[in-house]
UniProtKB/TrEMBL annotation:
Iron listed as a keyword: yes
UniProt-annotated catalytic positions: 94 (proton acceptor)
Protein's UniProt name: Peroxidase
Residues the record marks as site: Transition state stabilizer: 90
Cystine crosslinks: 63-142, 96-101, 148-355, 228-260
Residues covered by the Plant heme peroxidase family profile domain: 53-359
Length: 359
C-alpha cells in the first residue's frame, strides 16, 4: 500500500504540472482575466472568501494522505463508470446551495423527517455509493478525521480533473451538519425552469455568488445528462402556451422531441453537452449560444448582454479547438468560492463516521 500511495502522489504532482498554470490565472485575475465590469458581470465580493478554519492542506498532519486516497479511489471509479463524473460534480452543487457545504445532501431520512434526498430536485442524483466508498477508505486510514462535506468538495475537483478539466487547490476543514430537511432543498435549489435572472437574485446572490459565478458554474453542465422531465415544458408546453419554447433551435427541437416522446417521460436521459458529455470543456457554451441548451435557466443567460458575451466568447474558443484557459480559470475560482458558502468549521457540527447518518 505505501508504494501505491507513493505512486499516486507522483501522479498528483503530474496533474499539478499539467494544470498548475490555471492557479496563477485566477490568483492574479486583475492582470489576466477581463475586468468583470467590462463584462457587465459585476462582482459582489473583492476576492475569494477565506472562512476561519478553512484552508488548503487542512489535513496535512491529521490525515496526510487524505487527498491522495480520494484521488486514488476516484481514478478507479471514473475509469470504470465515467458517467458518474457529472452526478458527482452536481452532488457538491446541491449540497452547497442548501444551507451551505455541510454534507447534508448525504443524510438519509429518519422516521417522519424526510431529508434533502427526498426533494424532487434531488431524486435523480447519483453517486451516493461512491461517496460512501471513499469515506470508508478514509475511515480506515484516519478514523473520524475527514468530513463528508470535504469529501464532496474533493471528489468534485477530482472528477473535473479526471475528465480533462482544470485542477484547483481545495480549501478543507469543513464540518458536517446534523440536519437535512426536504423542504430546505425545495426552497434553495435553483430550478431549471426559472429564468437566469430570477435564479441569480433568488438563489445565487443570497449565497454570496454573483452573475459571473452563475454563468461560469452553469458551464459545469458540460458533464452529464438530464432526464426529459427537467425540460419537457420547453418542448411541449412552454409557459402554458401548448407550444415549444421559441428560443429553442428549430432544427434541434425535432431531435429532442424524438428522444423525449412525451411530456411525462421520467426515464429517458439526454446528454447536456452532446458529443462531449464525458469531457470537461467549454463546448457546452456552444449549445447555449445556438439555442440548444436544455434548460430555461441556461438558455436565458443569452437575455443578458454581459452573460451572453461570456457565453459567445467561450463558444468561440470551443469552436476553434483552443484551450479554454479563461473558462477553466474562472471555473476553478468559482468552485472555491461556492465551496466556502456557509461552511461549518472548528467546533461546529461534527465529522460523521458514515455520511448517511449523524453520529
Amino acid at each position: 500500500m505505501p508504494s501505491r500511495f507513493a505512486s499516486l502522489m507522483m501522479h498528483s504532482m503530474v496533474f499539478r504540472l499539467l494544470f498548475g498554470f490555471v492557479l496563477p490565472l485566477f490568483l492574479q485575475s486583475s492582470s489576466v482575466l477581463p475586468n468583470p465590469l467590462l463584462l457587465g458581470l459585476q462582482s459582489t465580493s473583492s476576492g475569494l472568501p477565506n472562512p476561519s478554519g478553512l484552508k488548503v492542506g487542512f489535513y496535512q498532519y491529521t490525515c496526510p494522505n487524505a487527498e491522495a486516497i480520494v484521488r486514488y479511489e476516484m481514478t478507479k471509479i471514473i475509469s470504470q463508470v465515467p458517467s458518474l463524473a457529472g452526478p458527482l460534480l452536481r452532488l457538491h452543487f446541491h449540497d452547497c446551495f442548501v444551507n451551505g457545504c455541510d454534507g447534508s445532501i448525504l443524510l438519509n431520512s429518519v422516521m417522519g423527517l424526510p431529508s434533502e434526498k427526498e426533494a424532487i430536485p434531488n431524486l435523480s442524483l447519483r453517486g451516493f455509493g461512491t461517496i460512501d466508498r471513499v469515506k470508508a477508505k478514509l475511515e480506515q486510514a484516519c478514523p473520524g478525521v475527514v468530513s463528508c462535506a470535504d469529501i464532496l468538495a474533493l471528489v468534485a475537483r477530482d472528477v473535473v480533473v479526471l475528465t480533462k478539466g482544470p485542477h484547483w487547490d481545495v480549501p478543507t476543514g469543513r464540518r458536517d451538519g446534523r440536519i437535512s430537511v426536504k423542504q430546505d432543498a425545495l426552497d434553495n435549489l435553483p430550478p431549471p425552469f426559472f429564468d437566469a435572472g430570477r435564479n441569480l437574485y433568488q438563489f445565487f446572490i443570497p449565497k454570496g455568488l454573483d452573475a459571473k459565478d452563475q454563468v461560469v458554474l452553469l458551464g459545469g453542465h458540460t458533464l452529464g445528462t438530464s432526464h426529459c422531465s427537467q425540460f419537457a415544458d420547453r418542448l411541449y408546453n412552454f409557459s402554458g402556451t401548448g407550444m415549444a419554447d421559441p428560443t429553442l433551435d428549430k432544427r434541434y427541437l425535432p431531435r429532442l422531441k424524438n428522444k423525449c416522446a412525451s411530456p411525462g417521460d421520467t426515464t429517458t436521459l439526454v446528454e447536456m453537452d452532446p458529443g462531449s458529455f464525458r469531457t470537461f470543456d467549454a463546448s457546452y457554451y456552444r449549445h447555449v449560444a445556438r439555442g440548444r441548451s436544455l434548460f430555461t435557466s441556461d438558455q436565458t443567460l443569452m437575455n443578458d448582454p454581459a452573460a451572453a458575451a461570456y457565453v459567445r466568447r467561450q463558444a468561440a474558443v470551443a469552436d476553434s479547438g483552443a484551450y479554454p484557459a479563461e473558462f477553466f480559470a474562472d471555473f476553478a475560482a468559482s468552485m472555491v468560492k461556492m465551496g466556502n458558502v456557509q461552511v461549518l468549521t472548528g467546533a461546529q457540527g461534527e465529522v460523521r463516521r458514515h455520511c448517511a447518518f449523524v453520529n
